[in-house]
UniProtKB/TrEMBL annotation:
<keyword id="KW-0378">Hydrolase</keyword>
<dbReference type="InterPro" id="IPR016192">
    <property type="entry name" value="APOBEC/CMP_deaminase_Zn-bd"/>
</dbReference>
<dbReference type="InterPro" id="IPR050202">
    <property type="entry name" value="Cyt/Deoxycyt_deaminase"/>
</dbReference>
<dbReference type="InterPro" id="IPR016193">
    <property type="entry name" value="Cytidine_deaminase-like"/>
</dbReference>
<comment type="similarity">
    <text>Belongs to the cytidine and deoxycytidylate deaminase family.</text>
</comment>
<feature type="domain" description="CMP/dCMP-type deaminase">
    <location>
        <begin position="21"/>
        <end position="158"/>
    </location>
</feature>
<dbReference type="Pfam" id="PF00383">
    <property type="entry name" value="dCMP_cyt_deam_1"/>
</dbReference>
<dbReference type="InterPro" id="IPR002125">
    <property type="entry name" value="CMP_dCMP_dom"/>
</dbReference>
<keyword id="KW-0479">Metal-binding</keyword>
<protein>
    <submittedName>
        <fullName>Cytidine deaminase</fullName>
    </submittedName>
</protein>
<keyword id="KW-0862">Zinc</keyword>
Amino acid sequence: MSKKIKIEAEFEELGWDELTIEEQQLMMRARKVSEKAYAPYSDFHVGAAVRLESGEILQSSNQENVSFPVGVCAERLVLGYAGANFPDLAVKQIAIVARRKGEEIWAGVSPCGLCRQTINEMEMRFNRPINILIQNPDGSVLRFPGIQTLLPFKFDDLNA
Ligand code: THU
């Protein structure tokens, strides 16, 4: 007998003043590093910043390649750097922003599938959810409590 299964996702939309100071700082770091994007093929400049459990902030922009699939998203670069250099520290939060070259307003952005799977791996590695903050073009910020809301029914168990 067939069964319908519903998956629900809950997240928040917040004004800048509704973010914590820590979150505002993280967003600012993501905004700043987006200026360093190497994105000559898409002109889409992305910045991602993570806060480690120690409080330290790391950040990266996206880095493209003339062989397009070789390019790497900002989120995967910063998470890879965190894992490689701070293997004992969990990531608490990630902030993601994007802007098209030459434009003032922020672009709408949402992490790609590969980056979602990478965020999931970091959550599993430290058994701790990562708060995900995403800049909206209208100035508001989306706050997701963890990757489950962005990647329901994910692959996370080789032996299930
Ligand atoms: N990109 C990111 O860095 N993060 C995202 O969340 C979305 C997409 C990059 C990949 C590529 O360099 C450019 O944005 C256009 O897709």
